# Entry
Amino acid sequence: MATVFPSNDADLAGQPFSMQEYYASCYQNGSLTLLFLPISRHSKNVLHSSRQSASISVTSEVPAASRPRVSLIGNITVFTNTSAISDLHLIKQCYLEKHPDAKWWLPDDDDAAHISYWARFDPQRIYFVGGFGGAHYIGFVPLDLYQKAHTDRMDEEEKSGIMEWNQFPVSL
# Structure
């Protein structure tokens, strides 16, 4: 995840900050579930940002220049009140399936190591790199196409179109 230091930071105002962050794809529209810990540098940056914006990079298990990757640019909504989350048990189950070790940091756990909240990252722009060189698509992907990309909800023709997106040449 990448965020930006707030404008009132004495040393790093406006500078980017990037580190690996846990996320899980628990929403049908491509939004991501985050565990938001106010103690973390990312959380502090988001809380002090008027837009509560961030960028998340998604890569393959073994990142390589020849492998597809995507950068999601969007906003974070923090849920300080878990009763406002209608599908809380599903969100928790989905997140823990992806990150079982996160059980020590869950919201509303009196024994948790730190205070935490559930958060949702809503992509606004999607930048895709299909691989290395001019043989693969590199550029922005329409948001509606990204949001439809859950292949479990698509017919075979739609799946084929998504999977072949990487066949388009680079346009500079």
Observations:
- The longest strand covers residues 117-129.
- The longest helix spans residues 88-98.
- DSSP finds four helices and seven strands in the chain.
